[in-house]
Structure formats: structure tokens, C-alpha cells
Amino acid sequence: MDGANHSVVSEFVFLGLSNSWEIQLVLFVFSSMLYVASMMGNSLIILTVTSDPHLHSPVYFLLANLSFIDLGVSSVTTPKLIYDLFRKCKVISFGGCIAQIFFIHVVGGVEMVLLIAMAFDRYVAICKPLHYLTIMSPRMCIFFLVSAWMIGLIHSVIQLAFVVNLPFCGLNVLDSFYCDLPQLIRLACTDTYQLELMVTANSGLISVGSFFILIISYIVIIVTVQKHPSAGLSKALSTLSAHITVVVFFFGPLIFFYTWPSLSTQLDKFLAIFDALFTPFLNPIIYTFRNQEMKVAMRRVCRQLVSYRKIS
């Protein structure tokens, strides 16, 4: 009887970012440019690392996989955002919403582990340089990659296992431009207090814990570098500053989303745009801006692409 009283929700409606045509036009141009730039930048990093033998090392292997994940981060929500900007009725099917949540948490979990792996790589390279190639062997790199995907998939499945069977009684409006657990759970017509605690524990505490582990790791590395000054000190500090910047950009929005999910809808939207558009766009710039070896390799690949185009 109770189940018969529930209307079946087959789709969700997004309120989007703004109803102003002028703001929507600015957002369309802005988000389209950032999306194309992030896709091109991350694709160029992957192509450069895979095609240049000089970059076949653990640090670039991890960087190429991070760029691959950033392609996914950009593509999970941004195309739908751009498509919906000028639509009066912004809808997504129930299955599409669940799929979006699944992929958001998969790529988020994978990126989290990859950032930890990159911190470990820098620790070994700076603190144990003589054992670097032994510790960061191809087997260890594959272990990090497989672990990242396994943790991302398990994390996402655990999150969705408690959500897919929630009863939705007709409320289907999300004040956002994409689907995620905190907003979706609030629409359920049942007591979701314990479920919200589970989401906070699973995503919020993992994000906060991983963030502080990474920051402490980089502090240890910086202290170690300063205790043993050398000619490569400035290069090491430059590399570490790039890694720390990426960590802050990635974990900052996540901590707000899942630790304080009801703080502010407008703040949530801003951080969601930053996470979906800015972070994948900035990562290639941050990792290559001060990396002379990477910049030289990228220019070499670009010249090869231009030459190939001229020949064909």
C-alpha cells in the first residue's frame, strides 16, 4: 500500500545557473572555451608522454593517467551544462542522473589515489633518489593505477548502493546543473539522516583525510629538501609547489561539497563549476608551466603533428 502512494520519478529537472539570457551567453562562451582547452591540453599531455621515449618514466606515467582522468572529469558534467544553457526545460532521466553520479565518484576516487601516488613518487625521488627506479618500478606504477581504478569503482558502487532504491515521491527539482548525492538524497520521501551521515563519512572524511595526508607528506618532503640543500633545490620546490596547487584545487571543492553540503547553494554551484571546468583546465598548465622537459617534448610533438598534416 505504501509503495502505491509513491509516484514514480522518471526524470529530474535542473534549475541551472541563471535565467538571464546575457549571463547564459557569457557562461556558454566561457564554459565552451574552457572545455575545449582542457580537452586539448590533457590530450596533448597524453600524446606527448606516450610518443616521447624521454618521458617514459614513473612521474610522467602518473601524469598521463591524471590527464586521462581529467578528460573524464571535464566530460561527466560539462557537455550537459553547455547543452542545457539555452534550454528552457533542463531535464535528465533517472538513469542518466544515476550514471552521472556513478562516473563523478569513479573519476573522483581515481584522481584522489593518483594524486597520492604522485606525492609518493615525489617523496621517493627527492628523499630516496638512489632507490627511485627500484621503488618506482613499472610493477609499482601498474599497482598504483589498478588500485586507483579499484578504489574509485568500489567507492562509487558503495555510494550508489544506498541510493538507487530510495523512494522519490514526485519532488524532482535539483537546484544545480548536475546530479550528485547530497542534492539527490534531499528529494527522497523518507528519513535520510543516516544516509546523509554515510555520504559525509564516505566522501567527506575520505576527502579531508586524504587532503591532510598529502599536505603533511609535502611538508615532510619540503623539510627534507631544505635540510639537504643542493643545486636542484629550486627545481624540487617548483615541482612541489605545482603538486600542492593541484591538490588544493582538487580537494577544496570536495571538502565543501561533502563536509558542509548545506552551506550555500550558490557557493556549491561556483565550486562545482570550478571543479568541472577550471581544475581540468589548470592541471595541464600547472604541471607543464615550469617543467622544461615537458615543454620541449610538447613543442616537438606539435611540430611533428604540423609536419604530418602538411605531408598528408
Describe this entry's structure for a reader.
- There is one protein chain.
- The chain has 312 residues and is mainly alpha-helical.
- The chain is 75% helix and 3% strand.
- It contains ten helices and three strands; from the N terminus they run E-H-H-E-H-H-H-E-H-H-H-H-H.
- Strands 2-1-3 form a three-stranded mixed beta sheet.
- The longest helix has 35 residues, at 193-227.
Structure summarized in a few sentences:
With 312 residues, this protein is mainly alpha-helical.
Separation, N- and C-terminal Cα atoms: 69 Å
Strand order of the largest sheet: 2-1-3
SSE order, one letter for each helix or strand: EHHEHHHEHHHHH
Give a quick account of the main beta sheet: strands, pairing sense, barrel closure: 3 strands, mixed
Radius of gyration: 21 Å
Q: What structural class do you assign from the helix and strand content?
A: mainly alpha
What is the mean predicted local confidence, pLDDT?
84
Spans of at least 5 consecutive residues with low confidence: 1-6
The backbone outline, from C-alpha atoms, is globular
- Percent range of helical residues: over 70%
* Quaternary structure of the protein: single chain
Discrete helix count: 10
Number of strands: 3
The percent range for strand residues is under 5%
